[in-house]
Amino acid sequence: xxxxxxxxxxxxxxxxxxxxxxxxxxxxxxxxxxxxxxxxxxxxxxxxxxxxxxxxxxxxxxxxxxxxxxxxxxxxxxxxxxxxxxxxxxxxxxxxxxxxxxxxxxxxxxxxxxxxxxxxxxxxxxxxxxxxxxxxxxxxxxxxxxxxxxxxxxxxxxxxxxxxxxxxxxxxxxxxxxxxxxxxxxxxxxxxxxxxxxxxxxxxxxxxxxxxxxxxxxxxxxxxxxxxxxxxxxxxxxxxxxxxxxxxxxxxxxxxxxxxxxxx
Length: 264
What we know:
This protein is α+β, with helices and mostly antiparallel strands and 264 residues long. The protein is built from eight helices and eight strands.
């Protein structure tokens, strides 16, 4: 056998061996992976667990709201309506309240405000109200201008120029939204923006409106369904960072954003 033929035969044997090894590796991977083709969840594929639907423990909340294990007592906060009339949350007792703490200088707050307006339009009435409480130190005028600018027609104007309400309610970012039962107790909370007017949200709030305060309470702190719409929303704004955007903030009041609204 010539040297050329020997090299040819050796190359052929090497190629065959490589093919056998490749086939063996593919077979091993199929055994480990159960023979399933790779999934791309970005294309909308779901796991068998997700396709089967939510478990009974998570069926109650299909919204972006995390429900507490039990209702929580709230401090008495003071604020004013658009005409300057002094109010507390007691003015809404008997209703289920969605209390949204926001400010015109908070970008995520501005983004979600139209969805709160549409929620109020759909469900607002004797049993439910969205209370959008601004903490703008510049006064009710900037709230009115913002509402007019983006066409808010169904939300009433409420303001706490002192900013104390946010501290009293332990709002760690803006927007912060509290779900409050008919007895004035906090039953759920969400920090950050959301789309509050999706069909899933409407169903969720209708469930909360229909339940009595204590008789059927089944809240779960672990229940969390994430954002109801498949789009990216801005993260919550931190008071320490955003307070500098309020034109009414001075050096004397800037530190109050992190001290519960307590002024020296």
